[in-house]
Amino acid sequence: MRQLLSMISAAVIGVGMMMPQAAQANDEIIQMTQNPDRWAAPGANLALHRYSELSDINTESVAKMQMAWAQSTGALRGHEGQPVVVDIDDKPMMFFVSAWPNIVQALDMSDPDNPVQIWNYEKKTDRDESAVPRACCDVVHRGLNYVDGMIVVHTLDGFIINLDARTGEENWVVKHAYPENGETHTGPTMIAENLIVAGFGGDEFAARGRTVAYDLNTGEQVWLCHSTGSDEDVCITPETNKDNPHYGTYGDDLGLTTYPEGEHLIGGGAPWAWFSYDPELRIVYAGTGNPGHWSPSYRCGNDTHEECNTGEFDNKWSMTIFARDIDTGNVIWAYQKTPFDQWDYDGVNENVLVDMEIDGEMTPVLVNFDRNGFAYVLDRRNGDLLRAHKFVTVNWAEKVDLETGRPVKVKEHSPFEVGRNVQACPSAMGGKDQQPVSVDPNDPAWFYVPTNNWCMEDEPQQRTHTQQGTVYVFANVYMYPEVPGESGKLKKFNVITGETAWEIPDPYPNWSGTLTTAGGLVFYGSLGGDFRAVDRESGEVVWERKLGSGIIGNPISYKIDGKQYISVFAGIGGWIGLPITAGLDMDDKFGAIGATAMAKATGLDKIPQGGTLYTFRLYD
For 544-568, what is each residue's pLDDT tens digit? Predict the structure, then answer.
């Protein structure tokens, strides 16, 4: 049984004071996220809208916005996340965590212009520094969670830690991911129904992906489901995909049989990014990553591109949106976006939950802007595929067939044979990577999307080993801007029609998430360090400030003492920033799996490092 796998069982390795019982944790999170004056969850709410109802800072007043304060995170690089702002004992508090070594800070916000740190926490024992070179795409951290007087934070080297939010003392610590097996944890985790749901990364180190749920109060493992393997391992049941059997059903062990023998054990599929949750359906949604190495012919039992794309060797369930029952982990439905991946189009981007009218009927949907360049709209109840539009330049596929759900691949742009160089758009970094979109749920068809506008040349290489925990790419990848001088764009995109209302080009890549507000604004940052406010209707940049480092963090908004605030991390990093933060040779065009060439082409080596949280408000 999966729950009894000794190596990855959630043994509690540290226990502190007695914990409060979080019997109503899910209700509390929902209630907190409905308060527009706070930012109580990483994505603003469990649906990941990243929308603020606050409107004091608006298109008319934003010109008066200035920096109120700044706070060092204690780390230099990799700040992809965001703080949370909540009330504890009627006192406003902000909590945030740095990239490696994952320092947690607790700020008393009673005087919101002059926050006071009341505790900080850094795990000092049993750390595994081998996680740093094994973190495929920098030592980033995407944020912590708060509920019922508890802070839940994870570390790059695989610990999940429950802290007392008032004191910073450990309640419990559990070992979740194992760097020696290629597993590192950039997160975030998600709290739903008194469970902490977590994945990890490591596909480029031959990790085998899995999703695990832990009891919020004790850290004990409640369920574990792999991304590859038998139906039992993956938690596929006879009810899985009952409305869409062409996606794959129980009884065929597709997570095992769609790989050559034994390959599923090093088959990737790690869910390393965002989770979302529908409390009415009691379904948790997450995407999985690439199927291990990037030399695809080794992941097929046949010899040609055509034979490997019949469906027999789809490498399930990599590149898949999983909809799992929160209580058991059992799969309600699973949709594979890029079967038999040939480009590293990791399928982990956030699944945003909105309700909208489609074909004359109000429908609860899931929206996913995938690395492969398509924006998907699915009925989140059963996985029906409703729309799939290109939102950036895409040449690896003609379209996604809405009947079969499968992309119509273009052989000319499909890497396959060892030693054959192939051009493809978008690059492996995707039309959008982990950087989150935002949406106003009152206008649910329009999303505000930070995009990457890069293509690549990909040349598969001979595989030399199958060792977990060792670099496992086997491809030479060269990335370059699609249009010189336009490496990133912010765009307003309609997921129903495929229309782009406006777009803002940028010489630097956009690796920051977006924040949409009721004040008619969208906030985002550039890797050049420019923090911007944009008029949602016109696409005009109406405010801009240069921060101390490149921005890969996600803006948030909150209100204390009648004043609206905007906060965002600066601190270059992530896959695109790795050549700079790791000090790589900028003349190695294949360095960091193609990121070095992009960093050099866009001048990112001229951007200083430095992890800082910046906060702004209106001034007269």
Answer: 999 999 999 999 999 999 999 999 9
pLDDT on residue 11: 39
Question: Nearest 5°: CA angle at 153, between 165 and 273?
Answer: 145
pTM: 0.94
At CA 395, angle to CA 389 and CA 400, rounded to 5? 35
Domain layout of the chain by residue ranges: 2-618
Please name which of 436, 413, 428 lies closest in space to residue 480, comparing C-alpha atoms. 428
Phi-psi region of 138 (alpha: psi -120 to 50; beta: other; left: phi over 0): left
Work out the pLDDT band at 26, boundaries 50, 70, 90: confident
- Averaged pLDDT for residues 584-611: 81
Tell me the pairing of strands 51-52 and 515-517: parallel
Task: State what percent of residues in the chain have pLDDT above 70.
Answer: 96
Average pLDDT of span 150-174 = 98
Return the beta strands (E) in 414-499 as ranges: 422-424, 438-439, 446-452, 454-460, 475-481, 488-494
Supply 362's token pair. 């109000």
Q: How many angstroms separate the CA atoms of 490 and 246, rounded? A: 35
Judge whether residue 4 has pLDDT over 70: no
Q: Rounded CA gap, 346 and 186, in Å?
A: 15
Residues annotated as catalytic are 204, 290, 344
Give the residues across from 525 on adjacent strands: 531
Q: How confident is the model at residue 24 (pLDDT cuts 50, 70, 90)?
A: low
Yes or no: say if 570 and 82 are a contact pair by the CB < 8 Å rule: no
**DSSP SS3 for 352:** strand
CA proximity to 65, closest of 57, 54, 73: 57
Average pLDDT over residues 146-162: 97
Which tokens in the block code for residue 126?
């049993």
* 139 neighbors 77 (Cβ within 8 angstroms): yes
Residue 40 structure tokens: 């109580």
Cβ-count burial 188-202 (b if 16+ within 10 Å, e if not): bbbbbbbbbbbbbbb
Question: Any idea how long the chain is?
Answer: 620
User: DSSP label at 391?
Assistant: -
Average pLDDT value for residue range 347-373: 97
Residue written as token pair 């899910």: 26
Distances in Å between the Cα of 407 and the Cα atoms of 129, 238, 319, 347, 380 are: 40, 26, 13, 14, 20
CA 162 from centre of chain: 21
Using the predicted structure, report yes or no on whether residue 9 has a pLDDT greater than 50. no
Amino acid at residue number 316: K
pLDDT of 595 higher than 90:
no
Is 2-618 a domain of CATH 2.140.10.10?
Answer: yes
CB atoms near residue 379 (< 10 Å) = 17
Question: From CA 367, how far away is CA 289, in angstroms rounded?
Answer: 17
